[in-house]
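Go through this:
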Amino acid sequence: MLGVVPWALAVVLAGSTLVFALAWHGVQQRERSRTEVASVATQFLQALTNFGGPTIDRDVADIRSYAIGDFASQVSQFFDSSTVAALRAANAVSTGHVQSVFVESLSGDTAEVFGVVDETLSNAKTSAHLELLRIDVEMVRTSSGWKVDRVDLLQTPSGFPSG
């Protein structure tokens, strides 16, 4: 009987070690996914808020590379050929600096991200002005990585500088 106790303890210890290892792996996997979502969201917000008249075709293609679903439709409508031509003619420039990105939720293949971006806008006829953008982004994991399905621009809070 005394010989059974050490073996029973060894089995219990091995089982609890396995459970801990699996739990740890799950936590590590979720953290890697969260880091990946934040990185893609940051890159997307940079692409969305950094464009210029001379490079507008390449800039729009970069924005489109992140877009699926509803956001893909919005990009096609907003950056149609006449808008792109007008941005180019006006030598419009947007320079964005991502202040922060926060992954609000991550569940399976969907993520909600909140970002804050300082955006400076100018064109050939107006001087530069600064806007503070607060942006909600819904992302979806696809076979080619995380993509943007929905973008909501939130109103700038009062007391913040806006053009």
Remarks:
- Strands lie at 51-52, 93-107, 110-123, 126-142, 145-154.
- The chain has four helices and five strands.
- Helices lie at 4-49, 56-64, 69-78, 81-89.
- The CA atoms of residues 71 and 91 lie 25 Å apart.
